[in-house]
From TrEMBL:
One of its GO terms (molecular function) is oxidoreductase activity. This is Oxidoreductase. It comes from the Archaea. NCBIfam families: PRK06197.1 (NF004846). InterPro entries: NAD(P)-bd_dom_sf (IPR036291), SDR_fam (IPR002347). Transmembrane segments: none annotated. Signal peptide: none annotated. Keywords: Oxidoreductase.
């Protein structure tokens, strides 16, 4: 039988954070967590849009709670502020969903001078996880779920040009960030295991899901042609955002090992029900993962030792 949202167990008493939860797969994952009784924090760049999303969730979640907090992953100061306020208010974190992201946009820089796709998709989430690591380590059975993409297979970590200052490709930068997501997820699992910590780190991808993610690049370029192509592809090929959220829900709640990769198991892994899959072999390169971890600590100024 296929695994669906109906298979998510009771989440009563669980605390969950979902980044980018006001729209797309993040919204639908947060909605199911709340419906199953979890206390869910929607970590959103726009509090206004987050509150609109929360209003759409609360009516169907009588046993859960929904909290909206500002988090701009393009700002390390915002990440630090979010983490400080969250740790002041909560004493546990059962599930952290590193979900928010940007895709194939013209070159922009974050507040801290990072190329935006690498900065938001990877470095922002790296810093967030680091700043919440004490809560994660102290919560029995905590899980960190990091959203990647099938585009990771075309990625390369360009240590000599991480921010695309010498050469920039919209899709190349996106692929690099998605490879970085999995290298981080699997390295985090190794560090959990080395420290004998009762926690799991899992990478996921949503397949081709119909979300706002695809339109932002064409809109920033002002390309009506590309925007039209994206809309047509979403209509013909994509599965729903609700279905695209299933790998996150599976990774966060199903019986599975840490350090695995979960995605839809249907046509070309672009749609279907979630299953454990094998990512590109480059994601298992421990030396590259170690170098990326060290570079990420240096760039963010956030380091963490995971102690049991």
């Amino acid at each position: 039988m296929p695994w669906t949202a109906d298979d998510v167990p009771s989440m009563e008493g669980k605390t969950v954070v979902v980044t980018g939860a006001n729209t797309g797969i993040g919204y639908h994952a947060a909605r199911v967590f709340a419906e199953k009784g979890a206390d869910v924090t929607l970590a959103c760049r726009s509090v206004e849009r987050g509150e609109e999303a929360a209003d759409g969730i609360r009516g169907g979640a009588p046993d859960g709670s929904v909290d909206v907090r500002e988090l701009d992953l393009a700002s390390l100061a915002s990440v630090e502020g979010f983490a400080d306020r969250f740790t002041d208010d909560y004493d546990a974190l059962d599930v952290l969903c590193n979900n928010a992201g940007v895709m194939a946009i013209p070159r922009r820089e974050t507040e801290d001078g990072f190329e935006q796709q690498f900065g938001v998709n990877h470095l922002g989430h790296f810093a967030l996880t680091a700043r919440l690591s004490d809560l994660l380590v102290s919560t029995d059975g905590a899980r960190v779920v990091t959203t990647s993409s099938g585009a990771h297979e075309r990625g390369e970590i360009r240590f000599d040009d991480l921010h695309g200052e010498k050469e920039y490709s919209q899709w190349g930068a996106y692929a690099q960030s998605k490879l970085a997501n999995l290298l981080f997820a699997f390295e985090l699992q190794r560090r959990f295991e080395d420290a004998d910590v009762d926690a799991k780190s899992i990478g996921v991808h949503p397949g081709y899901a119909d979300t706002d993610l695809q339109r932002r690049g064409p809109e920033m370029e002002g390309s009506r042609l590309k925007l039209g192509i994206m809309k047509a592809m979403n209509a013909v090929v994509a599965q729903s955002a609700e279905r695209g959220a299933l790998p996150i829900l599976y990774a966060a709640t199903a019986e599975t090992e840490g350090g695995v990769y979960v995605g839809p198991g249907g046509f070309m892994n672009m749609r279907g029900y979630p299953e454990v899959q094998e990512p590109n072999e480059s994601t298992r390169d421990e030396e590259t993962a170690r170098r990326l971890w060290e570079a990420s600590e240096g760039l963010t100024g956030v380091g963490f030792e995971i102690d049991s």
